[in-house]
Amino acid sequence: MLIFFGLIHRNISIIKIKNMQTQENVKDLVRQKYSEIALQNKEQNESSCCGSGCCSTEVYNIMADDYSKLEGYNPDADLGLGCGLPTQFARIKKGDVVIDLGSGAGNDAFIARHETGDTGKVIGIDFTPAMIEKARHNAEVRGLNNVEFRQGDIEKMPVTANVADVIVSNCVLNLVPNKDAVIKEIYRVLKPGGHFSISDIVLEGQLPKEIKEAAEMYAGCVAGAIQKEMYLKMIDANNFGNITVQKDKPITIPDDILRQYLSEDQLAAFKKSGTGIRSITVYAEKPTEEKKTCCGPECCN
Asked: Is residue 296 part of a domain?
């Protein structure tokens, strides 16, 4: 019996190791692709699937919304990689501390800085050195002393607990293998009563396995997306309150991109399946008081 359970434990350990290796492979892929993207301009990125390089001959912006009319917009920091406008919905106030997850070249961070003003602070976190370098340059040439960019993994943020009033993120969590870890980190880093506004790609229905297994489509924000219902339940399970979908829009991937992964029959079947790829912006709040976990006579029957 001991040998039997020992074998089970060993097999579980092997599965965990393989899963960790797979997650690291995904991270390496994303880091590589977004290092390349940092050297591209916005027009090149807009003609691809979220900047992944799976280029479409139909040159238009597949995912991102138009930032150009928002105060604080910096064209040099806009690589066309987002899938929403989280800062527009983030309810940032003067003096707030704001953290931007997956800050890229600094686009959302600079919009957030306009909202929080000189008395606030914005911290951008990105694990791609080339993006950090580009963002720091964009901040320096504009003399923005209260915008800081830190290199790090958003699954383990280089930030102390209870420091942020607001967290924003734009088309990033779908790139992360362990999304639950990021949600837990968001909870840790937010102040009690703080909130987040995150734009992301989610699914309604199942993607064909050819797309889910395509590395390029993962870096392109699609293959790493999870079900919308699961996404919202994950936020709820991590004790956030007042969960609200602030925006919900369909995303259409052009046929010439999909044909790189699907046959004509598979493409036709996918279109008939009703599977929806959507961009959502989700708002949620960290409670002002932690939920009690004791089971003494004062809180449990």
From this structure: no
